[in-house]
Amino acid sequence: MATAQAIPLTRHAFADGSFKQMLIDGKWAAAASGKHFESRNPATGELLATVAEGDAEDIDRAVAAARKAFNGPWSKFKPFERQQVLLKLADLVERHFDELSSLDTLDMGAPISRTRGTRLRVLGMLRWYAGQATSIHGETIPNSLPGEIFSYTLKEPVGVVGAIIPWNGPLGASIWKVGPALATGCTVILKPAEEAPLTSLRLGELAMAAGVPPGVINVVPGYGETAGAALAAHPGVDKVAFTGSHLTGQSIVKASAGNLKRVSLELGGKSPDIVFADADMDMAVPGAAMAVFANSGQICSAGTRMFVEQKVYDEFTDRVATFGKGLRVGNGLDPETQIGPLVSVQQLERVTGYLSLGKQEGARAVAGGERLTEGSMAKGYFVPPTVFADVKDEMRIAQEEIFGPVISAIPFNDMDELVQRANATTFGLGSGVWTRDVSKAHRLAGAIRAGSVWVNCYQAMDPAVPFGGYKMSGYGRESGLQQMEEYLNVKAVWIKTA
Ligand code: NAI
Ligand code: MG
What we know:
Elements: E1 19-20, E2 22-24, E3 27-29, E4 36-40, E5 47-52, H1 56-71, H2 73-76, H3 79-95, H4 97-108, H5 112-116, H6 119-133, E6 149-157, E7 160-164, H7 170-184, E8 187-191, H8 198-209, E9 217-219, H9 224-233, E10 239-243, H10 246-256, E11 262-266, E12 272-275, H11 281-293, E13 305-309, H12 310-325, H13 345-360, E14 364-367, E15 386-389, E16 406-412, H14 415-422, E17 432-434, H15 438-447, E18 454-455, E19 467-468, E20 477-478, H16 480-486, E21 488-496
Parallel strand pairs: 1-5, 7-8, 7-10, 8-9, 10-11, 12-13, 12-17, 13-16, 15-16, 17-18
Antiparallel strand pairs: 2-3, 4-5, 6-21, 14-15, 19-20
Helix pairs in contact: 1-9, 3-6, 3-7, 3-8, 4-8, 6-7, 11-12
The site of 1,4-dihydronicotinamide adenine dinucleotide (NAI) has 26 residues, from helix 9, helix 10 and helix 13.
């Protein structure tokens, strides 16, 4: 049952400092090498768990288990039975939702208000995938060959899937990969990020309890350069579903060439969020602010290039800065916290590096701009909401993905020029438009080269609506029927009937 009370969770049953093993073939196992790594709370530095550190040998074992399950018991599951497993898993995730969401908060820092707020999305995804399990089908297709010959298609699961996910929302990211695999009849090796592996392991445990056969879901924590790279290159893997940085995406594509496995990539962005003078400002101010500050800016589709029409630029930027300054930064376990820490010291260094760079490039920090180190903040990786004004298109803070709570505010005048400037990025994941003028909204929805356009809102997501990138934000789609196709092969069957 959901409870609204404050969370006394410095001790969490799954993050009690103990050793966590990896899940292979339905069994919990230490790494073949015996190695392990630590997972710590980024708000406090406190040790949450030591975790088995998988590498190539463990990936080999997991791929063998996934193949055996794919060819064996799992292939016998009827669509309705796969649906039942997904629904059972959804029920278990619902029952344990508070535990799972607080595990995300402990492991990667996001405020409990945010992780608890993913309830509808997380359960909605599992149940939507459950619905898909019984909806997959081929087609009969009339052909024009002479004589009597009949043709139809079959949809078949692509096989063994390597799922490599980042740390910025472990519960949702895990389900986004495991869900379609279960729905289509694939098997999966889930490689969580080294920064936040715990929720994926706990989800694996719940999947076993839901009746997922051994080997169908394997969870192998470990580092990207070892476990991740081994999974991407493995000849026994039929598809890699990856979410993370574009640089890692490129190395995954290269690694996939050995067996030409299928790849889908959901990468980063530098998304334009465009504010017209005619916008409803009371809606646009918090909207544009949280399009970046949510999850401390650690969201792939964050609207980090805030283009504001010149005549309202000063006022709007000022209001967004004031909004940012009013947000409560702190330990994610505090129910009042709105902005948690960054996930790791590496991420802190990366973001503070961009804060210095922005100032060197001549931008002006009108909110934030420095790491927070007062009192208990010193133990964590806290960066306050930051707004840079006077940003020019060519500055690196306007071109590169920072992945922190940093807005680059850029003025514009002319609509045609705006379109060209908004698209002048190597990325194309998200975008926002704030206006009361419906023709401007439609025009931009067509002109922006990005996988999602949000008008008078930002970051809306639904399991039925495809999400993904243009350009270097990757290829393939997650959610929607398009995602199901990523996990399916289509086979043509011809039968001569006379
Ligand atoms: P990353 O792309 O290196 O890590 C994401 C996942 O890929 C992790 O599970 C990691 O272990 C794995 N990985 C790393 N190297 C790999 C390799 N060679 N082969 C296979 N798997 C590999 O991202 P990282 O280092 O966590 O963050 C760096 C930057 O990337 C961030 O500051 C941000 O700009 C961007 N990023 C974007 C994300 C998004 O959602 N689009 C998510 C995470 C990071
Ligand atoms: Mg990395």
